[in-house]
Design brief:
mainly alpha; three-stranded antiparallel β-sheet; 7 helices; 180 residues; Aspartate Aminotransferase, domain 1
């Protein structure tokens, strides 16, 4: 888990290790962290991570905002990826069938709404997301998929505005995809 996803400083995180899983050492030398990583822990960053996690728990309604977003878009030809499994409450991954995801991203960006077609580490890639392909999406559907992340600052008014914009932008992005 990366702490910066919870608004803590970059450079700290947590690793959940399933009981019985054997991992090689990441940095050799000391016995810290059950011999998985040597070196002194950054205590101030660890404390910041803990505080950020506590603050994140104050926003328990974020999942309902995400669900509201998804339900409000149900009249569009979409698939909510991962809807049937446990998932992060602040993230929605939506395939807008027949639409160009880049066109949706640009259209929203021009209206002050930031979304993406994938993770930051894959920005600039032209090929479809390997994660989406591994989930069983076709290359065409993967190229029609947008990731929408909500924050602890997201409001219902912002969700309504994003839905309204998507209802305008998605048909244009579908027409653009059909002509290419």
């Amino acid at each position: 888990m990366s702490a910066h996803k919870l608004y803590a400083p970059k450079g700290i995180g947590a690793l959940f290790v399933r009981k019985g899983l054997v991992l090689d050492s990441y940095i050799l030398g000391g016995a810290q962290e059950r011999r998985r990583r040597a070196g002194t822990e950054n205590v101030p960053l660890a404390i910041a991570f803990g505080v950020a996690a506590d603050v994140a728990m104050d926003r328990a309604d974020i999942g309902s905002l995400r669900d509201s977003l998804e339900n409000s878009l149900s009249s569009l030809p979409i698939t909510i990826n991962g809807k049937t499994v446990r998932r992060l409450p602040n993230t929605s991954n939506i395939t807008f069938h027949g639409a160009d995801a880049e066109g949706i991203v640009i259209g929203l960006d021009l209206n002050g709404v930031a979304v993406s077609t994938g993770s930051a580490c894959s920005s600039g890639r032209v090929e479809p997301s390997r994660a989406l392909l591994a989930m069983g999406l076709s290359p065409e559907d993967a190229r029609s998929t947008v990731r929408i992340s909500l924050s602890r600052f997201t409001t219902a008014v912002e969700i309504d505005r994003a839905v309204s914009l998507l209802r305008e932008i998605v048909p244009r992005a579908q027409r653009a995809a059909a002509t290419t």
